[in-house]
């Protein structure tokens, strides 16, 4: 082996370059050691960093509060007078419907003079019935009157002549009495014939179908050429004076609060116009099936109010003094309605309540609140009794 070697002071065999000839290249070994040292340093640095972050994070968690106090909106509703109202629905109708039929013996309709939707006056002719037969009967009776009058005049002349002859003894007093009776009977026949003519004329006049009162024609059930009689039923329907009403269906509890003169606002279906009226009659009975009664709301005529149509009503049923809460503040479960009240320690406490009138501005609370409490406005469903909260007061008008 041709190389110069020596024993180092440590007893290791080395060559002239200081490398161990038995283990190959010494520079590669040094590089491996350097890499190992660098890797170890990096690993230690990483471990130190992990330990530092872990210790610092633990300290931060220890200093943070375990739970975060929720912020809730609260209101103090106060207590005031709330206009009571009852919402109801019903059917529009004529307040007084006048059915018009044939008042006389009837006959064939010749002309119909009105249409539905027209206004008529009292006594106005609605339809005309053929009266050709009645006209002939009247003419015949008029002739009978003339015959009776002629007979009466003849009887009176005979009686007057008899009075002149009785004094001369040519005729007895009995004959005079008989002639006077004959004269009186003849004049009575004139009166009878005149009365019969009056009957015929009245019957003829009743052939006209006339309006019994002023109002609005609602229905027409007859046409020219139709034969009618007293048994033909209703030919026309008239709303007396054009007055309308709403037959509002109201629950028996609310019905007990109503009476004549209570104001109401009526809105027909399909219209945004509101009509003002008042209750003029409350039903004396309750439907045993629906447990409702009828409140009749009188209304003045308007073209939007059509009998048979549907309408809603808001009935002003007096006023109550109570706190008024938004719907979001009132919760309910199997135990009933309740709210969350924030006490002096800012803890949410459950408070059972009893609700009353429902208005556009909120719900009246008739029992359970004085009005000066702090009531949770929203998110009450996420709270539990005794939870600590941070109240934020919301001012109400």
UniProtKB/TrEMBL annotation:
<comment type="similarity">
    <text>Belongs to the membrane fusion protein (MFP) (TC 8.A.1) family.</text>
</comment>
<dbReference type="InterPro" id="IPR058625">
    <property type="entry name" value="MdtA-like_BSH"/>
</dbReference>
<keyword id="KW-0472">Membrane</keyword>
<dbReference type="Pfam" id="PF25917">
    <property type="entry name" value="BSH_RND"/>
</dbReference>
<keyword id="KW-1133">Transmembrane helix</keyword>
<feature type="transmembrane region" description="Helical">
    <location>
        <begin position="35"/>
        <end position="54"/>
    </location>
</feature>
<dbReference type="InterPro" id="IPR058792">
    <property type="entry name" value="Beta-barrel_RND_2"/>
</dbReference>
<dbReference type="InterPro" id="IPR006143">
    <property type="entry name" value="RND_pump_MFP"/>
</dbReference>
<dbReference type="InterPro" id="IPR058637">
    <property type="entry name" value="YknX-like_C"/>
</dbReference>
<protein>
    <submittedName>
        <fullName>Efflux RND transporter periplasmic adaptor subunit</fullName>
    </submittedName>
</protein>
<keyword id="KW-0812">Transmembrane</keyword>
<feature type="domain" description="Multidrug resistance protein MdtA-like barrel-sandwich hybrid">
    <location>
        <begin position="106"/>
        <end position="232"/>
    </location>
</feature>
<feature type="domain" description="YknX-like C-terminal permuted SH3-like">
    <location>
        <begin position="325"/>
        <end position="390"/>
    </location>
</feature>
<dbReference type="Pfam" id="PF25954">
    <property type="entry name" value="Beta-barrel_RND_2"/>
</dbReference>
<feature type="domain" description="CusB-like beta-barrel">
    <location>
        <begin position="248"/>
        <end position="316"/>
    </location>
</feature>
<dbReference type="Pfam" id="PF25989">
    <property type="entry name" value="YknX_C"/>
</dbReference>
């Amino acid at each position: 082996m041709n190389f110069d070697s020596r024993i180092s002071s440590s007893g290791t065999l080395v060559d002239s370059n200081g490398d161990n000839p038995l283990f190959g290249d010494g520079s590669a070994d040094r590089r491996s050691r350097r890499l190992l040292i660098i890797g170890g340093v990096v690993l230690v640095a990483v471990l130190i960093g992990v330990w530092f972050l872990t210790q610092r994070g633990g300290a931060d968690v220890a200093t943070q509060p375990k739970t975060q106090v929720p912020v809730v909106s609260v209101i103090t509703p106060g207590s005031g007078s709330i206009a009571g109202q009852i919402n109801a629905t019903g059917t529009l109708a004529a307040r007084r419907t006048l059915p018009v039929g044939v008042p006389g013996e009837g006959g064939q309709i010749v002309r119909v003079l009105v249409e539905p939707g027209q206004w008529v006056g009292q006594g106005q002719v609605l339809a005309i019935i053929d009266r050709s037969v009645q006209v002939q009967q009247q003419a015949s009776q008029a002739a009978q009157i003339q015959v009776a009058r002629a007979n009466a005049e003849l009887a009176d002349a005979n009686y007057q002549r008899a009075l002149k002859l009785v004094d001369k003894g040519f005729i007895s007093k009995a004959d005079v009495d008989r002639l006077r009776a004959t004269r009186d009977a003849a004049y009575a026949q004139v009166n009878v014939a005149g009365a019969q003519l009056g009957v015929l004329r009245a019957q003829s006049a009743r052939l006209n179908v006339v309006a019994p009162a002023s109002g609005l024609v609602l229905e027409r059930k007859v046409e020219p050429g139709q034969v009618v009689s007293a048994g033909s039923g209703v030919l026309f329907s008239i709303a007396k004076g054009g007055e309308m009403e709403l037959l509002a269906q109201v629950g028996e509890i609310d019905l007990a609060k109503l009476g004549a003169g209570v104001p109401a606002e009526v809105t027909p279906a399909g219209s945004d116009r509101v009509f003002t009226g008042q209750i003029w009659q409350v039903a004396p009975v309750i439907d045993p099936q629906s447990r409702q009664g009828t409140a009749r709301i009188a209304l003045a005529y308007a073209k939007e109010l059509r009998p048979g149509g549907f309408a809603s009503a808001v009935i002003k049923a007096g006023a109550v003094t109570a706190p008024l809460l938004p719907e979001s503040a009132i919760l309910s479960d199997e135990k009933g309605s309740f709210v969350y009240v924030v006490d002096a320690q800012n803890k949410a406490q459950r408070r059972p309540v009893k609700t009353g009138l429902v208005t556009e501005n909120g719900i009246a609370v008739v029992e359970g609140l004085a009005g000066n409490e702090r009531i949770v406005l929203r998110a009450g469903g996420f709270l539990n009794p005794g939870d600590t909260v941070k109240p934020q007061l919301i001012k109400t008008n």
